[in-house]
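Sequence only, no structure available. Ideas?
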Amino acid sequence: MGFELFSDKGKSIPVIGKYDVLIGGGGPAGVAAAVAAARNGAKTFLIEQLGFLGGSASGSLVTPLMLNRAGSDDLNRGILDEVKGRLASSLNEANDERGIADPNWFDPEMLKFVLEELALESGVEILYHTFVADVVLENCDLVGLILENKSGRQVVYGKVTVDATGDADIAVKSGVPFESGRPPHGTNQAMSLRFLMGNVNLARLSEFWTSIGGEPQSSGSLHIFMVWGRGSALEPIFRKAVEDGILDESDGDYFQAFSVPGRPGELAFNCPRISDKVNGADVFHLTQAQINGRKAIKRLIDFCRKYLPGCEKAYLVAVAPMVGVRESRRIIGEYVLTASDVLQARKFPDAIVRNAYPIDIHRARTSEAASRDEATGCEYGNVPEGDYHEIPYRCLVPKGVDGLLVAGRCISATFEAQSSIRIQPNCYSLGQAAGTAAALSVNQNIKPRELDGIKLRNILKEQGANL
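Reply:
I predicted one. Tokens follow.
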């Protein structure tokens, strides 16, 4: 095989490199995979569609990290600890109470710098503004990727590829079987289009939140929320705003806002929730989510200014360039994690991640969902108190294709189980496991599915994972 030109349907495409490990997607899973692969001796190439790293964390403004603890024990360690440490050291302590007290809260803009520096220092090569257009297969063995960007099309070869796209884009192009949505209708979880609002008097807003019955909080660690029927102190105010014509009924399906470390006077909103046309792997659904989301953001800003003391002079800082997708495609792997595994705190000899985050399903307002559930909302299921379940390495190994591993929210799991493991801390840990496994497979000249998962677990533990 030559490595200068590649022929695709009669057209010659330049080959830009030959690597040990290719990583598709620069979110938490992709960055952790790239860093782990490079540190374990693999020549590593990271491909990202945007001009920065962080994926949903930075591009969808998904901040803060969700806690994943068994008792007081943080279950996600290793590379994630390094990211948290670098983020904390970047903060202005005089202006940031929350960032020093809790490293799980972060500035999504600073995260772009931290992840890029971490990847480059580890020896990772990065290519921004690039999509994976297709794959190069040889007898069900993935050997390369066809890329597309402003410069045209290129081919890059790799001995092992890690799909960290979030939507299993590479796996699906390779022919890996997959599922999407909740059986039997295939309805996906609701999405969000998050935004930032500035010039907020956080102290005044915090006082107001406490005065209406909200849990007392400092302005540096402010968290306010409202979901219809869940006892929020804001519900009567939301109801009045709907009656006044300021908000739509759907705006109260899910409302949540956090202060942002290192950015005094700002709130990050985990809303509006997109509850119709919720397939994150459908470009038409994503387009409609951006359009409808911006309309809802205008209503929410108007509501905040008129009804929430401290927000009278607030302004829009940014709308996320990416829609926040909780769940889309999920591969079928050598093992499919189930809700029973989660709720029964099941352990595995080849475990590569521990998780105690609950099953957390954000239902959508669709005709299919309505036939199944009487009202929109959330569903929860908890791991036994103080315990955790484990995710086996086999969930990262897809059926039917060699030379490929999958990391992040699109690993092999049922709809319910995926709603528990999809959070960012787990994505970092899944990425570290996938990158380490990819490098080990290259070093041992074996397929990823042939790698001993128990040995992988031991190596991950030696390199800082909590296993």
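DSSP finds 14 helices and 23 strands in the chain.
Hope that gets you unstuck.
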